[in-house]
Amino acid sequence: MNNIYYSSEFAKKGFWFKNCQLALAGLMFLSFNQFNVNAQAPIKKEVDVVKPYEPVVSGAQKINELPKINDSIKIKPVFQYNVVPVMMNTDYQVLPIAAAKMNPSPAEPLLHSYMKLGLGNYSTPLAEVYINSLRSKEYAAGLFLRHQSSGGKVTLDNDKSVDAGYSATSAELFGKKFFESSYLYGDLGVSGNSVFDYGYNTSKKLLKDTVLEKGNIRQNYLLVAFNAGLRSSHSDTTRLSYHVGFGYNMFQDRFSHVENDFKLKADLNQQFGNKMFGVNSSLDFLKRNNKLDTTGSANSLIAVNPWVELSSSQYKLRLGVNVNLVKEDNSFSVRFYPSAEFMFEAVKEVLIPFVGLSGQTQQHSYRDIATENAFIRPDLLVKNSNTKLSLYGGFKGSLGARASYVIKADYSNVDNQYFFVNDTSLMLENQFKAVYSNVDIFNAHLEVNYDYNDRLSFGMKGNLYQYSAFTQEQYAWHKPSFDLALSSKYNLHNQLFFDFDVLATGKRHVKTFTPGQTSKDLSGWLDFNVGVEYRHTKILSAWLKLNNITATKSYSWNQYPNQRFNVMLGFTYSL
User: Fold this and answer.
1) For 292-310, how does the pLDDT look when each residue is reduced to its tens digit (9 = 90+)?
2) φ/ψ (deg, to 5) at 408
């Protein structure tokens, strides 16, 4: 039994071995019999080779799919931890750092003096001299001298040339003394102007062959002016701010008509919380000699305007009353006018609407009238005007850092508004007198300033006028329907400086006394001016100015044509 027993694994191996032996014996037997059968046949020893053997490996088809494991169960690890705060004690000490020192930029040095000299056609010399003190924290002082004249002629409507020259000379000495929170100022000036009354009526047959002598049509004006005052300079609105001043003007013409003008002024204001209280007051006393005013009466005006202002970062409201005490032609009157203004920021710094209400008495001195129209009668006195009501409103603001604008409309109701007309009591009709009328005046004003960059800038200012509700006169004589001024400046590499101006004035009505004709129109005019300056150094430059380059014929006043194309050339020098 022991010889017969095998393990299953050993039995499998023995069985396989035995079968192999039997197969091998069978193969040997078959081979032996084969050789015996073919032993007598000849063996063919030739081999036919068709071509060399070329092994070929058949192409394999690759499986491009990658194994994927789709696990429907996703396990997110969850961490739990706790931070135990532990205070660490340090003994670090902070050392103080010295404050940084900013060295101020060196101030640009000032020059003591400036001189400008020039010469142009129409025999027009120009000279300006400016002398000033250097930079100081204690005072500032200076002297200014100027002269410009012309000996040219113009052609009247009858094709005759007449002397239309002028002369303007002035000298002014001024200064300031600075204190801790205020400064004292003063100035003394003298000026002399000369004109010729060359604009006579050329339509008169009697004046057809008229020759005007310069000595007979000359008018001279002399002004001596002095002003002094004390003004606060602190920026603290909770402290009292003040401005008190005194002024004196002496005005005289060639015929010894003299006017003395004394002025006093006092403005006070102080802030309490969000309210500011103030008062503006002035006294203007006009006294003329007997040649100018045979009545010997004085024209005086006292104005007192108390007000209160409420303001915040979004709005400002000022309310007050303007009280005028007027003495004129030996008569005395007290007038009350409203004084109010309100503005607010609709869009911060961009759109600021405003509206206001006011009124006042306008005092007209002989000096003011002669400055406006130098061809007036030598003994002309103009009555005071009374603006009973002035209502205005508009918008102002900025369009970015380089542009600003103002749009304003104003309606005024004025009594005794004066207008200039030719004095027909004179044979030449070459001087003007004043006529009066109550009138309503509407004025639309637009002003825009734009700095394109540091080298190029533009400016525009325009007014539109409309007069209505006349009580005595038909039109606003010699008042334009509009005026416009456009200007631009360009700096080329701080060496060439260009400026270009356009001035325009609308048509004006002129009162005439021709039978069958009560008025005529003076045409509007357009004036182009160009200037260029070549700055060789900071102290020396040359300049050229071209005025009215289109040579447009224009009239400032009826029968008074202006000089046409004007060119001036000169230089400036500083020390």
Assistant:
1) 988 878 899 999 999 999 9
2) -140, 140
The encoded tokens of residue 99 equal: 């404050």
CA 392 to chain centre: 22
Q: What is the CATH code of the structural domain delimited by 399-575?
A: 2.40.170.20
Which of 23-37, 193-207, 399-413 is the most confident on average?
399-413
In the three-class reduction of DSSP (H, G, I as helix; E, B as strand; rest coil), residue 13 is classed as helix
What are the extents of the domains in the chain? 113-221, 399-575
Beta bridge partners of 489: 457, 499
Name the nearest CA neighbour of 560 among 211, 207, 199, 210: 199
CA distance 448 to 459: 6
Whole-number Å distance between alpha carbons of 32 and 19? 21
CA angle 6, 8, 13 (to 5 degrees): 90
Are 459 and 448 in contact by the 8 Å Cβ rule? The answer is: yes
Name the amino acid, one letter, at 291.
K
Question: Can you give 420-465 as a three-state secondary structure string?
Answer: EEECCCCCCCCCEEEEEEEEEEEEEEEEEEEECCCCEEEEEEEEEE
For residue 135, what are the β-bridge partners?
none
- Sorted by sequence, the CB contacts under 8 Å of residue 551 that are 6+ apart come out as 564, 565
**C-beta of residue 418 within 8 angstroms of C-beta of residue 438:** no
What is the rounded CA–CA span in Å between residue 177 and residue 344? 37
Quick check: helix, strand or coil at residue 34?
Answer: helix
User: How many other C-beta atoms are found inside a 10 Å radius of the C-beta of residue 65?
Assistant: 6
- pTM of the predicted model as reported, rounded to 2 decimal places: 0.79
- Which of helix, strand or coil describes residue 545? strand
Mean pLDDT score, 511-515: 85
Tokens coding 102 = 């900013």
pLDDT tens, position by position, 170-198: 999 999 999 999 999 999 999 999 999 99
